[in-house]
Amino acid sequence: MANYLTLPTTTSKGRIRVVVETPRGAEAKLTYKPKKKLFEYTRPLPAGLAYPYDWGFLPSTLGDDGDALDGLVIHEAASAPGVVIKCDLLAALRVMQTENGETVRNDRYVFCPHKQDAHSESLLSENVPDRLRSQIEQFFLASVSGTDKQIEFEGWHDSSQALRNIHRAMRTFKRKQRAAL
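RE: above sequence
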């Protein structure tokens, strides 16, 4: 099995790869464990809650929380852990997360799969509709219920600002990789 964490973040055509950890409809959070080369059960979601869309990470990125950037892929299809989806970036939900007394930025990037047969248009517009934004926020609030995590939202970034943040996280990942050599 490939090390999903080190796959290239972008394709030659500028699409962003998202590695699915927890598929749409799952009632438990799964996490990729690179040393074990598997996807591991992390914890159940609160009763009655399921992932509304595929949840995963952007390979070869490193965020302020020390992990790869998080990605939510808005689509109707079923997938599975380990599926890599080439996506168009829509926006990012700016999140401050507090865990074990430490507060860090842990934004959630929102994508839609790139349609291979489309005329270079996203499945959605480049903007996430307000109603969907609200639903995404409510899901993330509910998903941390019963954990030691607390999250606060600080608004949304459009796709251009979100892309700048992804490029910064790619550079941070490369610096860490070079320092480990």
